[in-house]
């Protein structure tokens, strides 16, 4: 979902120039606000996403002096800030997944027998996925979604959350295991549990 | 398809496109940046200038009005909807040193809902009008530019509203210094002189024909009353319109050929004008994009006739003015 910017190596330079010229920071907004908005809108919906994106950039702006200029790509940094802010809306997020769990899906899917049949859409798995997401520990959920929805590499997730890469891997493994379990035999694309 | 793929698929279904109202968050950021910078109170004067700046004053409120109500759809929607028509008052004033500021240039700009063909109508500064009370005890008759001296932009706004019956959505005030900087940020602008001019008062000193001039000369060209044309304010307005057209063309060219320089120009433009409600560089950019279609701005001067009381002043030609402003009043 995120389109890698063509001039990513300039993030650090941009942040550096914003130290003297605060308004230069707006260029970072222009570059990444859309990407962050899409990501946060997946987790919190459109209304909260707008605020979270605004808060993210304000927070980033106020601590830009502490940005590690050796890191050319500012995306992990911004995703990290956004993730912390998303956590404040955990009720909104939980309600979103709950609603999804109940929402009717593709009507052509009737029973387990049909679900394993060819041509079943992935949307059949949505209630189970939503169920799984709402059952995950926050730390695991953050890692899982930064990988699956934020398109970050493991090292980038580690940077975003300020945790070791090993922890990213173990959290991701645990989260994936739980999601697989929740999909269980209702997983339309798996013949075996 | 493993569980990550299924999860990605779920995510795509949940995603929303950034709404135009996201520009508000950008404004918050710019405000935070400016608060830190602490500029002194600037002197604001008006020059009815850059059609684009004016235009910019327009699209943004439209985008803002749209964002909240129109539910973003998950599909890849692109441009913000056209929105509603907007009227913008552009004021340029004449403050020099400690002298009282006067509005040197006044323009009403109408931007239709489809953003296709903005209409600029200039109001001559020596137009005799009734100036509303504006904090004083009583309203008085006077030249329209004295409203600015009496009560600033809000008084000018009240006067224009009363005169034209037009609702104004946005007021833009431009400083002469700001205009100069804007032209320089564009790398200059082209002007064509019918004959050579050497006017000490304005500092304009150019031969006849086409010239590529910098901000200082462009400003002189916009302001000079002697040596070019018939020396009237109406003639000066025509010249300003030509300059605006030239400026808009140059800006559009730069937007295409040198986006980096153009971004700088927008930042300068946003910093050189005072807008109510506020606009920033991003908002200007959004607006400029709405006007990419060539020279589609229409320039007019409000219909006037010599004042019965003073032949050197003018008064509104009411029936004709009413017709001209009709489009401003329609949705």
Automatic annotation (TrEMBL), chain A:
The keyword Electron transport does not apply. Residues 128-178 form the RNA polymerase sigma factor 70 region 4 type domain. InterPro entries: RNA_pol_sigma-70-like, RNA_pol_sigma-70_dom, RNA_pol_sigma70_r2, RNA_pol_sigma70_r4_t2, RNA_pol_sigma_r2, RNA_pol_sigma_r3/r4-like, WH-like_DNA-bd_sf. The lineage of its organism: Bacteria, Bacillati, Actinomycetota, Actinomycetes, Streptosporangiales. Keywords: Sigma factor, Transcription, Transcription regulation. It comes from Actinomadura darangshiensis. Pfam families: Sigma70_r2, Sigma70_r4_2. This is RNA polymerase sigma factor. GO terms for molecular function: DNA binding; sigma factor activity. SUPFAM superfamilies: Sigma2 domain of RNA polymerase sigma factors, Sigma3 and sigma4 domains of RNA polymerase sigma factors. Residues 28-94 form the RNA polymerase sigma-70 region domain.
């Amino acid at each position: 979902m995120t389109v890698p910017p063509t001039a990513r190596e300039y993030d650090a330079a941009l942040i550096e120039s914003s130290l003297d010229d605060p308004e230069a920071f707006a260029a970072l907004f222009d570059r990444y606000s859309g990407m962050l908005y899409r990501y946060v809108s997946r987790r919190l919906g459109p209304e909260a996403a707008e605020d979270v994106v605004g808060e993210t950039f304000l927070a980033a702006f106020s601590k830009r002096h502490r940005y590690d200029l050796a890191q050319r790509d500012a995306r992990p940094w911004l995703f990290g800030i956004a993730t912390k802010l998303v956590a404040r809306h955990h009720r909104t997020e939980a309600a979103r997944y709950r609603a999804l769990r109940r929402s009717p899906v593709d009507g052509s899917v009737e029973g387990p027998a049909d679900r394993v049949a060819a041509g079943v859409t992935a949307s059949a798995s949505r209630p189970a996925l939503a169920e799984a997401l709402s059952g995950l520990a926050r730390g695991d959920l953050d890692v899982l979604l930064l990988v699956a929805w934020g398109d970050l590499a493991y090292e980038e997730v580690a940077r975003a959350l300020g945790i070791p890469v090993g922890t990213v891997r173990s959290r991701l493994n645990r989260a994936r295991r739980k999601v697989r379990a929740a999909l269980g035999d209702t997983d339309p694309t798996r013949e075996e549990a | 398809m493993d569980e990550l793929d299924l999860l990605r698929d779920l995510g795509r279904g949940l995603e929303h496109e950034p709404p135009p109202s996201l520009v508000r968050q950008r404004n918050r950021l710019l405000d935070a940046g400016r608060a830190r910078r602490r500029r002194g109170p600037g002197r604001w004067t008006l020059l009815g200038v850059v059609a684009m700046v004016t235009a910019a004053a327009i699209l943004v409120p439209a985008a803002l009005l749209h964002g909240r109500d129109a539910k973003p759809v998950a599909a890849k929607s692109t441009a913000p909807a056209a929105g509603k028509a907007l009227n913008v008052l552009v004021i340029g004033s004449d403050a020099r040193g400690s002298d009282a500021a006067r509005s040197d240039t006044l323009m009403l700009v109408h931007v239709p809902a489809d953003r296709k063909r903005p209409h600029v109508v200039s109001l001559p500064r020596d137009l005799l009008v009734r100036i509303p009370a504006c904090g004083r005890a009583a309203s008085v008759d006077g030249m329209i530019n004295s409203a600015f001296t009496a009560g600033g932009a809000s008084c000018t706004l009240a006067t224009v509203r009363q005169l034209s019956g037009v609702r104004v959505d946005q007021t833009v005030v431009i400083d002469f210094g700001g205009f100069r900087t804007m032209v320089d940020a564009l790398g200059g602008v082209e002007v064509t002189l019918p004959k050579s001019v050497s006017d000490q008062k304005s500092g304009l000193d150019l031969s006849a024909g086409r010239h590529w001039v910098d901000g200082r000369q462009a400003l002189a060209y916009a302001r000079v009353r002697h040596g070019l044309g018939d020396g009237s304010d109406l003639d000066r307005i025509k010249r300003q319109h030509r300059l605006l057209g030239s400026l808009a063309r140059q800006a559009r060219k730069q937007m295409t050929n040198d986006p980096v320089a153009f971004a700088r120009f927008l930042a300068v433009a946003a910093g050189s004008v005072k807008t109510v409600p506020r606009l920033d560089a991003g908002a200007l950019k959004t607006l400029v994009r709405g006007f990419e279609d060539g020279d589609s701005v229409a320039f007019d001067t409000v219909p006037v006739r010599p004042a019965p009381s003073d032949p050197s002043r003018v008064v509104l030609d009411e029936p004709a003015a009413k017709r001209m402003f009709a489009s401003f009043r329609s949705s």
